[in-house]
């Protein structure tokens, strides 16, 4: 008997437990508010932090980035923390209270824009549909990339077929318990996932860093990884920009913010930012200190290491392999279930016109919500099967999927800010401006697909260009909004006073 045999029993137990939580939570739901929202600050902090700790962006993106770019990669977790701090300040200082007390932040801003312009604004619909589409792709990526790491714990011969089966199993578990149980199931499963992740992290370091027992040697090794060439500096700068921007367009963050009272929103974001940065630092540390074969990406070498560990027998191999399997499975599912529930929330609220804060009991509306979830993630399953068939490089696949989405960070920030300046200022955020951002997003996506197909390393610069274009547009909109709020017209003349 090897560790792989025992791992199947552990994996089966996790699957059964998570499924039970989903069914159990579904019996307690009576309204859409029950399905989507839970106001407890502690649970939201734990869940959102667990969501941010991913195998795809953590184990693949961060460790490979650290391997390529060296010691300065530690700036990326710091930038993640900074992004959360800035978002908290933005919500508290630069937005109107009505945007933070509606169904969700995007819906609140949309209502202000519609009232200011006197016609329905496409803001929430365009942004939500775009973000949900991207996050459905990211969900497929997370499962695809993570299956490559988890499969060696369960299959003696790891190949694309084994990874595809792993993807299907994980996808089925996530969609089943999340669509059935909603946010209650997500929070209940976190009770199991978070302790397993906490046990996993020290074992992960111990098994991947050969000198983990010698702090002095680690410091010497770290000092030797410093790179200050232009390639590394530009890559770090882009990564830090994306880390900050992500917090402003992430539906995961906005979904959590809409759960808690306005006075708690900044506390939520500050705590999540700090805890996330601490854990992501572990992934960067492994990327810097793991000694692998020359020319092989770190995550691939770690996968080979864990495949060898799982093929062994004995108490130590059983214990280490089991902890790693349960920890990685928990990391993966804590990310994917949150994406599922957030995607359904924003599609339901902002695209099809539902009300996630409706506390009236309605089994019909709950069935409608679950149908939306099933259809949305049927598409995700098709994408998952496609990328399992094509087998692209996960590192560049993630860059191409998320490249254009950074457009929405300055867009959301600008929209919320001009709305806080008053009705006259909000009028500058017209439908034409909204569709301009959307055009940049679509163009960046097309360029990303072309560059990914050609396996070009320029794919990482698409997001930077798209972000800069959106930033310039946002600064222009904010400047016009500030002029309007002061009663100054486009040419510098005072605007006429309207008599009610």
Could you characterize the architecture of this molecule?
This protein is mostly helical and 500 residues long. The protein has one domain: Hydantoin permease (Orthogonal Bundle). The protein has 20 helices and no strands. The chain has helices at residues 3-26, 32-36, 41-52, 55-69, 75-93, 105-117, 123-150, 160-208, 215-223, 230-249, 251-257, 262-289, 298-310, 315-351, 363-390, 394-402, 408-420, 423-426, 431-453, 459-485. Helix 7 (123-150) runs antiparallel to helix 14 (315-351). The longest helix is centred in the middle third of the chain and has 49 residues, at 160-208. The radius of gyration is 23 Å and the shape is globular. The termini are far apart.
Q: For the report, how would you describe the main beta sheet?
A: none
Strand fraction equals under 5%
* Low-pLDDT residue spans: 493-500
Distance between the termini: 83 Å
Mean pLDDT: 85
CATH architecture: Orthogonal Bundle
Question: Which sequence of SSEs, written as H and E, runs from N to C?
Answer: HHHHHHHHHHHHHHHHHHHH
Query: What is the CATH class name?
Result: Mainly Alpha
- Our count of domains comes out at 1
Cα radius of gyration in angstroms: 23 Å
Number of helices: 20
Backbone shape: globular
User: Approximately how much helix is present in the residues?
Assistant: over 70%
CATH topology: Hydantoin permease
Strand segment tally: 0
- State the secondary-structure class: mainly alpha
């Amino acid at each position: 008997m090897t560790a792989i045999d025992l791992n199947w029993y552990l994996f089966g137990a996790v699957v059964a437990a998570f499924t039970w939580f989903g069914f159990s939570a579904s019996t307690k739901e009576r309204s859409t508010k029950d399905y989507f929202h839970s106001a407890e600050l502690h649970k939201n902090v734990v869940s959102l932090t667990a969501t941010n700790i991913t195998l795809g962006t953590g184990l693949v993106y961060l460790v490979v980035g650290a391997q390529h770019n060296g010691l300065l990669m530690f700036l990326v977790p710091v930038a993640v923390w900074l992004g959360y701090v800035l978002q908290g300040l933005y919500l508290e200082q630069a937005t109107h209270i009505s945007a933070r007390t509606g169904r969700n932040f995007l819906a609140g801003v949309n209502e202000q824009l519609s009232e200011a312009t006197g016609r329905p604004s496409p803001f929430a619909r365009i942004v939500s549909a775009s973000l949900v589409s991207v996050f459905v792709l990211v969900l497929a990526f997370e499962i695809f990339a993570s299956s490559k790491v988890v499969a060696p714990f369960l299959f003696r011969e790891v190949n694309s077929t084994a990874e595809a089966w792993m993807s299907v199993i994980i996808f089925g578990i996530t969609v089943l318990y999340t669509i059935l149980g909603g946010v209650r199931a997500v929070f209940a499963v976190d009770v199991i996932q978070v302790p397993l992740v906490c046990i996993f992290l020290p074992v992960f370091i111990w098994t991947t860093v050969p000198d983990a027992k010698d702090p002095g040697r680690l410091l010497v090794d770290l000092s030797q990884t410093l790179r200050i060439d232009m390639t590394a500096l530009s890559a770090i700068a882009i990564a830090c920009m994306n880390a900050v921007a992500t917090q402003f367009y992430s539906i995961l963050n906005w979904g959590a913010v809409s759960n808690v009272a306005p006075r708690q929103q900044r506390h939520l974001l500050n705590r999540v930012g700090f805890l996330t940065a601490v854990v992501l630092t572990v992934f960067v540390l492994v990327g810097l200190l793991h000694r692998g074969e020359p020319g092989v990406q770190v995550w691939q070498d770690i996968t080979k290491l864990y495949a060898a560990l799982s093929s062994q027998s004995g108490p130590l191999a059983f214990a280490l392999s089991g902890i790693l399997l349960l920890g990685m499975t928990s990391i993966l599912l804590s990310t994917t279930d949150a994406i599922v529930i957030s995607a359904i929330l924003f599609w339901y609220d902002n695209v099809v016109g539902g009300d996630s804060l409706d506390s009236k009991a309605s089994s019909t509306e709950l069935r409608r919500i679950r149908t939306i979830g099933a259809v949305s993630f049927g598409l995700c399953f098709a994408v998952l099967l496609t990328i399992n068939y094509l087998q692209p490089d996960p590192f560049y696949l993630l860059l191409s999927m998320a490249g254009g989405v950074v457009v929405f960070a300055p867009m959301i920030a600008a929209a919320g800010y001009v709305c806080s300046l008053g009705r006259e200022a909000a009028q500058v955020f017209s439908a034409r401006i909204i569709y301009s951002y959307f055009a940049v997003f679509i163009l960046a996506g097309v360029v990303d697909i072309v560059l990914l197909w050609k396996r070009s390393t320029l794919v990482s610069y698409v997001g930077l260009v798209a972000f800069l274009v959106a930033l310039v547009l946002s600064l222009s909109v904010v400047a016009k909004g500030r002029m309007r709020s002061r009663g100054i017209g486009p040419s510098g003349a005072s605007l006429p006073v309207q008599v009610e």
